[in-house]
Amino acid sequence: MREELLPMLRGAAQRTADLVTSIPEEEFGRPTPCPEFDVRGLVNHLEWGASLFESVAGGGGFLPPKEYTGDFPERVERMLIAWDKPESWEGVSEAMGGLPRIVLAHMALTDLVAHGWDLSRATGRGYEVEEATAARLLAFARDMAPIGRARGAFGEEVFVPDDAPTLERFLGLIGRDPAWRP
């Protein structure tokens, strides 16, 4: 599983970091498809998520959100270093309610791709996702959607036709409207 998922994490982290660093501060107030966040708030959420997933990959605790610092690329690099260790994929995370670490790796990938897509829509920039990554995320979301909705991580499903691209079906399943525009 690690051999398949780690390259997907690396790719999503790089794409999202490139996107984040391309957004000028004057666009930070734009709305995003993630209704509780504007662009600045969403980048801040990504920073926190990278630090959280770094912590739990290393067996650490749950980290509370912090204020925006502008260091997402550095944080996501530290997260990848943590996930590069084989032991980070073993066992469960007590900090995350006893979830298996493999589930947490999928959650990190979901966070990077979904919020990367959110930022791309909010700012009018492109965000490409490999078909294998989109298919992995769709399968994961199908399994986790009820729990994700119950815990507030996913929104209510948005109808997306069965013949839509895989990424759009994933987005609809987690509560995003693939047709969203600012």
UniProtKB/TrEMBL annotation:
Pfam family of the protein (one): MDMPI_N
InterPro entries: CHP03086 (IPR017520), DinB/YfiT-like (IPR034660), Maleyloyr_isom (IPR017517), MDMPI_metal-binding (IPR024344)
Membrane-spanning intervals of the chain: none
Superkingdom of the source species: Bacteria
Record domain Mycothiol-dependent maleylpyruvate isomerase metal-binding: where: 9-57
NCBIfam families: maleylpyruvate isomerase family mycothiol-dependent enzyme, TIGR03086 family metal-binding protein
Protein name per its UniProtKB record: Mycothiol-dependent maleylpyruvate isomerase metal-binding domain-containing protein
